[in-house]
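Box 3.1 A note on notation
Throughout this textbook, protein chains are presented in two layers. The first layer is the amino acid sequence; the second is a token string describing backbone geometry. Keep the layers aligned when reading.
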Amino acid sequence: MNALILSTLSQGLIFAIAAVGIYITFRILDFPDLSVDGTFTLGAAIAAILVKSGLNPYVALFAAVLGGLAAGCVTGLLHVKLKITNILSGIIVMIGLYSINLRVMGKSNIHLFDSAHMFTQVSPVMKLGIILVFTLIVKVLHDLFFKTQMGYVLKALGENERFVTALGYNPDSYKILGLALANGCVALAGGMYAQYQGFADISMGTGIIVSGLAAIVIGEILFKGAALKTTSLVILGSIGYRVILSAALKLGLNASDLKLITAGIMVLILSGVIEKIREKVSSASGAMKQGKHADQHKEVNSHA
């Protein structure tokens, strides 16, 4: 299989894990959590420094998830206990994590080229297989969790907080839980991405919130009406987003232009342009099918 295709799919699946976490905050909790940019780097930093120290790479991933859970709890506590607005809570944690991530790594960049990690001496196809397994595990756990009582309460919390309170649940505790789970997913993606790339960098989480939202909306628009779970839409949207970026690089654009491309994609999505194009394509294909059926009907009648 082409190396570019394997790389695109692998990165799409890794960032799909982060997008699942972002989906929890933005779509389920209705909480614009901007701390995920720092949490992604935190997961990468923890995993990288532990792998560099000789720890088992999968144990390092688990530690990265714990770091993400803690960061999400801090965001939630700032919001529910100190009554700081949701956006500012995320920004404060994101800023604080920049210094924490530097402390964890000791410098702005750590390479893993001389360390044994989860992708050491593994073929590109096997790398994709490992990442796919992790992505499916996150998807299944997400789907199962939101079928439990706690999951239903979290869903209800995003829709109507007063209703949750009236049922006798503490909305503050569930907000913290949701933010912790979301940031745990993002940190897991960061830890995997650091090992996949072979390094961790202080700026590698910049723009994760935007790319995650792009993946969510692309999945929802392109596969609208399909009988798929939301996690499946997010995963497909993440892969689609990476395909767009890979195509842009293939056309000769610089890697430094990817953030601008992402911004452009978000403008097209949020302005409804992509939705209108999808509707026109759907209506055109529907008209073509009707035309074919009509021609077949005429042909049958003529033979009769």
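The beta strands are 109-111, 199-201. Residues 68 and 184 are 4 Å apart (CA to CA).
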